[in-house]
Amino acid sequence: MDDSNFFETVKQQVCTCSLDLRIAPDVEAILKMPMQELHVSVPVRMDDGTIRVFLGYRVQYNNSRGPTKGGIRFHPDVQIDNVRALAALMTWKCALYRLPLGGAKGGVACNVKELSRNELERLSRSYIKEIAYFIGPDRDIPAPDVGTNEQVMAWMLDEYAKMTGTTVFSMITGKPVSVGGSAVREDATARGGWYAVKEAAEDYGIDLKNATVAIQGFGNVGMNAALLAGPLCGCRVIAVSDSRGGVLNRDGLDIGRLREHKKRTGSLVGSDLGSGITTSELLELDADILIPAALEHAITVRNAGNVRARLVAEFANGPTTDKAESHLAMRGIPILPDILCNAGGVVVSYFEMVQNRTMDRWDEKMVHTRLETAMTTTYRMVAAFAREHALTLRRAAYSSAVGHVVEAMQARGWV
Ligand code: NAD
Questions:
Q1: Is the CB of 189 inside a 6 Å radius of any atom of ligand 1?
Q2: Which atom of ligand 1 is nearest to the CA of 75?
Q3: Where are the domains of the chain?
Q4: Domains 33-183 and 187-336 share a fold
Q5: Which residues of 360-394 are buried (b: 16+ CB within 10 A; e: fewer)?
Q6: With a 6 A CB cut-off, is 221 part of the ligand 1 pocket?
Q7: Which residue among 11, 105, 175, 262 is the active-site one?
Q8: Contact, 329 vs 307, CB < 8 A?
């Protein structure tokens, strides 16, 4: 199998689940393909007056458990196969957490670093206009992912409202609080990830107080993971990186100042807060916890042999290939898998939908408490399932999730 094709990895995981759950081949075939997908051209008037056409996608993978849900990615590497893979992961993630939602994903192949703010706004509005008839609060609900944020969600909400003549907040999540967003959504993925890491650390005998942490990625997930590492778990972040490079300081990094540096200069490179390292060197550092929080397939057969962490916590989606995972397993390095570890974002997005639909507002404390309960109870359920059947956490999480999807498909009479 190709070590670098993300959708192939995801399909392979379905095959493994089929073996564990004795799923019939015809049912497995349904689980290995998206239900519906839309390919769109996204025309955008650029600041110089010319029109550029970007390629966009929206994939609804499986809606047996409810309307589909998943982020929108703006990144040069967006293409249909990785959108399919990410949509499948959303399906398993929502099912694992027993949310009444299916899985979807969308994206546009573009480089946000090359767009002005006005061009980014026009791209966001143009994309949502193209996919508007395909989505909706009872059909498919987008959210932020790599390259998009709450401002992009607000523009999309506004464009959709103009088209439909109604402001339906629950059509999109990850919005600013002023337009129906939820408290805590901004750092929900990172916060939820740490709640899961706390549970796993206990199981694997890792004392989090002063444990060292290396984090790849310094965006919504990576930066918030770095900011919360100390306050939530007492850990010391010794290294972080973004797409241009990283920084290492064994005494612990000042994350607040690094954030300022990145805001000022656009990258982590060149700060005087530690020594410069490459983003691949970061993955091989001697740190207790390694958090890939950037893109898929960061840990492959090429570098898995050099990973020295005691626990890999997948805050990103799909950061470890199948073959790399086998290497890590042979070397006794456990993985806290993506659909279990980074579900905080979709869990709080679900809370946002509940608040929108009931015209309610939950305070920070309530969201924190409910998020922590969701993360810890799901972790414990997966860990118990893994122990009972002698499976890895990934295999336990995926089998449990796929089982819930099959159950819904059976209940609806699809299979
Ligand atoms: P983001 O766009 O806010 O940040 C991505 C970060 O990754 C940036 O700092 C970028 O510079 C960095 N990066 C890109 N390529 C890199 C490389 N090769 N090495 C090091 N850094 C690199 O995106 P995000 O929302 O933080 O998402 C990160 C990951 O988390 C993705 O896998 C995403 O699917 C996943 N995720 C995000 C959410 C969410 O709520 N945003 C929820 C669940 C999972």
A1: yes
A2: 2
A3: 33-183, 187-336
A4: yes
A5: eebeeeebbebbbebbeebbebbbebbeeeebbbb
A6: yes
A7: 105
A8: no
The rounded Å distance from CA 242 to ligand 1 centre is 9
**How many Å lie between the centroid of ligand 1 and the Cα of residue 223?**
9
248's tokens = 């290492």
Chain CA centroid to CA 221, Å: 8
Q: Tens digits of per-residue pLDDT, 42-83?
A: 999 999 999 999 999 999 999 999 999 999 999 999 999 999
Say what the pLDDT of residue 2 is: 44
Looking at the domain that runs over 33-183, which CATH code has it been given? 3.40.50.10860
Residue 163 above 80 pLDDT?
A: yes
| pTM of the model as a whole | 0.97
165-173: list long-range contacts, CB under 8 Å, 24+ apart.
Answer: 168/137, 168/356, 169/356, 170/137, 170/141, 170/352, 170/353, 170/356, 170/357, 171/135, 171/136, 171/137, 171/141, 172/141, 172/142, 172/143, 173/69, 173/141, 173/142, 173/143, 173/349, 173/350, 173/352, 173/353
Pocket test for ligand 1, best of 74, 145, 149, 151 (most atoms within 8 A of CB): 145
Strand order in the sheet with 311-313: 275-277, 245-248, 236-242, 212-216, 289-292, 311-313, 335-336
Torsion of CA 415, 347, 258, 302, to 10 degrees: -20
129 catalytic, yes or no? no
Encode pLDDT of 368-378 as tens digits.
Answer: 999 999 999 99
Determine the residue of 9, 240, 295, 314 to mutate for testing ligand 1's pocket, defined as the one with the most ligand atoms within 8 A of the Cβ atom: 295
Based on the number of CB atoms within 10 Å of its own CB, is 81 exposed (0-12), middle (13-18) or buried (19 or more)? middle
Distance 218 CA to ligand 1 centre (A): 7
Distance in Å, CA 43 to ligand 1 centroid:
25
| Residue 334 near residue 186, CB atoms below 8 Å | no
Pairing label, strands 51-62, 140-144: unpaired
The finding on whether 194 has its CB within 6 A of some atom of ligand 1 is: no
**187-336 topology per CATH:** Rossmann fold (3.40.50)
The whole-angstrom separation of Cα 213 and Cα 233 is 11
What is the rounded CA–CA span in Å between residue 211 and residue 205? 12
Q: What is the rounded CA–CA span in Å between residue 139 and residue 131?
A: 12
Mean pLDDT of 71-96: 98
